[in-house]
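Example (one chain per record):
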Amino acid sequence: MTASAPDTFPKLLLEHARLRPDRPANREKDYGIWQSWTWAEVAAEVEALAGGLSAMGFRRGDKLAIIGDNRPRLYWAIAATQALGGVPVPIYQDSIADEMAFVLDHAEVRFAVAEDQEQADKLLAIKERCPLLETVIFSDPRGMRHYDQLFLHGYASVQERGREFAHDDRGFFAREIAKGRGSDIAIILYTSGTTGRPKGVVLTFDNIISTGQNALVFEGLTNREEVLAYLPMAWIGEHIFSYAQAYCAGFCASCPESGATVMSDLRELGPSYFFAPPRIFENILTQVMIRMEDAGWVKRKLFHYFLGVAKRVGLPILDRQRVPFADRVLYWLGNGLVYGPLKNTLGLSRVRVAYTAGEAIGPDLFTFYRSLGINLKQLYGMTESSVFLCIQKDGEVKPDTVGRPIKDVEIRVAQDGEVLFKSPGAFQGYYRNSEATAETKQSDGWVHTGDSGFFDGDGQLKIIDRAKDVGRLERGSLFAPKYIENKLKFFAWIKEAIVFGDGRPFVAAFLNIDLEAVGDWAERRNLAYASYQELAAQTAVYDLLQGCVERVNRDLAAEPAVATSQIRRFLILHKELDADDGELTRTRKVRRRIIAARYQPLVDALYSDQPAGRIETEITFEDGRKGRLRAELGIRDVPTSLPMVEPVAFKKAS
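Predicted structure:
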């Protein structure tokens, strides 16, 4: 970054408003129609909001919480807060009261911007528990007419107040932005809390802008890109791709009408730059497979035949390697009949670069998308690194690596196998948690990732699993749970999988069915059911999933490092794992320790000779009420595949 380059996002906003005032900066689909705002219009909207906040007493260093779905107004709230020298604190929109109250109190939030009545009601319910929270601003006025609390204000009225403020002091906005420095705190993003309470990650403008720009240069991305902003605003991935890089490059970020319309809005928009965690790609594949099962036999035959062609030659064609002419012709034909229409249906026809990250993606799933001609790549990063550490280079993409370190990033692997990094994007610390900061960030700048990995022969980083999760079976062979779980989740029928094995004689698994996929499968076979629990317990469903497990075992048998980690027993859980029950994080990462403790009787049953296990669990309904659910779950024994190879010795990360 040069000395004269803008070093904060508000400064970048003013630069784009000057250089490309008429280029679209944001879009939002509302009532079926795409609304657009240019960079000049966004700058005016942000100025109005910043003026209104200042008139209401917002001061440099204050924290402002942002809660809601992806909306241009909420992104403008981030920019307005930063323009005034404040710190935005996005909160997951599906957070329950206790989770929201913790973040508001811990981050010392004074102001909050809520999307709509639902989010405003949450804030009202917990306001007494958050004494520092003084002002709540709601964006969508629907349903808010009869709310008479004095601390509640409409977004439009705050902006109107800001326009009056700006009229009286025309230079205020520019002066406040000029005070900002790259070393200032840009945002506090809370971790998902996989193992405990979330931690507030403090990132500066220098952290985010330096890594964001390096990644843009690496991929050759420009201000002409299009992205769909649809992931939770509180997640670092969404913040980087839809806000930080959009401001760095000057491209347009578009918001879907709602979570339910993401796929149709994606198809209409046709983004050129796309990011999704593995679970999104899993869900898309599930929808594809469901539709194929309902198609006529001719379409099914064509689909599966050309998928075979793509699996054989699609990857070398994408990587511009030499492929026999006959295979190229077949692939070209498949593109016209299958791959092209499929990509168009998914909204991925125009994608130049697609990333997946957040957790490991199954090699089979990864290969499926790349074989269709979609330039899907893995990147490696985390909130504490401002995302970008490693990116796969075009022509060097492997399904089991995350690429090489990008510019200015150093990575080393400790003796116990843990990956550490140095980067200009390395976080400043955990907010109000010096002990956790000292455990993660060393005084010499090296940061512990908590991941176990190694560099392969080509110098690419390979992540095995979370260091705390990687273990050994009873006889000493490697046990990498996420690796096995990703293989299971490649199947459309399996939504979630949790495997056990550390210190055990063999590997066993909990499975969650995908209700939509398995429900569609059951209806075509005239299998009656009235609930998730009834469907999951059916013998035919157990048979279906046993076939998936046996296929995974055959794959594992062919890999020396994990051949002894084949699954011997499994059961299908009677309920879906749920973030509201504390079993998943808000980014849908499995909380292993919580699940192992809550379902201990079922774990014990898997490692006994019992044919079934009994359990009683507490569940949370959508309205917040609690209930109890009792079940007796069948357990299946699964044959392992031969030949079994000698176990690979492994030193567990400490």
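Caption: The CA atoms of residues 190 and 200 lie 4 Å apart.
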